[in-house]
Design goal:
This protein has eleven helices and eight strands. The chain is of the alpha/beta class and about 280 residues long. Bound molecules: S-adenosylmethionine. S-adenosylmethionine binds next to helix 1 and helix 3.
Amino acid sequence: MSDTPARNWVPDEVDTSVPSMARAYDFLLGGAHNFDVDRIVAEQAEKLMPGAAKIARLNRAFLGRAVRFLLDQGVRQFLDIGSGIPTVGNVHDVAHQIAPEARVLYVDKDPIAVAHSELMLTAIDNAEVLRADMRDPDSILGSSQARRLLNFDEPIALLMVMMLHWLPDSDDPWALIAHYRDALPDGSYLALSHVTADQRQDQIADATDMIRESRSTDQLTPRTHDQIVRLFDGFTIVDPGVVGCGLWHPQGPGDISDNPEINAHVYAGVAEKKPASA
Ligand SMILES: C[S@@+](CC[C@H](N)C(=O)[O-])C[C@H]1O[C@@H](n2cnc3c(N)ncnc32)[C@H](O)[C@@H]1O
């Protein structure tokens, strides 16, 4: 499919000659909200790192399982930062099947992700989207959307799925998460997934270089297991710990690959903020 001049779903500010990692991920998941530049990056990623599309699907399946797990823990509020372009299994879709009263605030910095989320949510109660940058926590926590949808006296699930590797170390994702953690009441949860280079190091390095050479404003920072575990500081990680996303409570064939390397490209974990004395 090539790009056509008439794309009424594209906000004016979007430069369609520059790849977006939100749109490349959409392409890997089989979505249609992407352009030639995004597809080129996604296809190169698949070539350099065979299984990239499968990894994206396993990550998406982890997101669904994490949301169901959190609902089972009684959580009814979700703050999904880096929510991406809507696709199958959006957080409110999963949550509302079990708890129609669950509230979801989606946050993304990508204008297309936000424009499509707005369209998707027009007729949906209890869910909104905010365009903001994760690196500015106060603009999210203090937003009118957060104040309207989220009750900071009740547990909230903070989701940062497949997004923190877009922050370089110089942005200090550890300190940023601590800022969010401090705003959450006890009984809240953090669920995240994150690309690693612990396996297939050369392939990940090639993919990282390819993204660097594209004109994308998002650059990949894969992290080690230890660095990713430290993102959960101040939370208590639930079983089975921080593991390849395919290994986090798989429930069916779509959740896990029979190739152990594919399961382990993205680490995933869920953790609870317990009271200090617990
Ligand atoms: C790979 S997508 C993940 C979508 C969804 N969370 C999932 O796992 O299926 C990553 C998303 O993070 C967003 N993102 C990256 N850096 C961000 C930041 N600093 N603030 C907010 N969103 C960000 C991108 O725009 C993109 O939509």
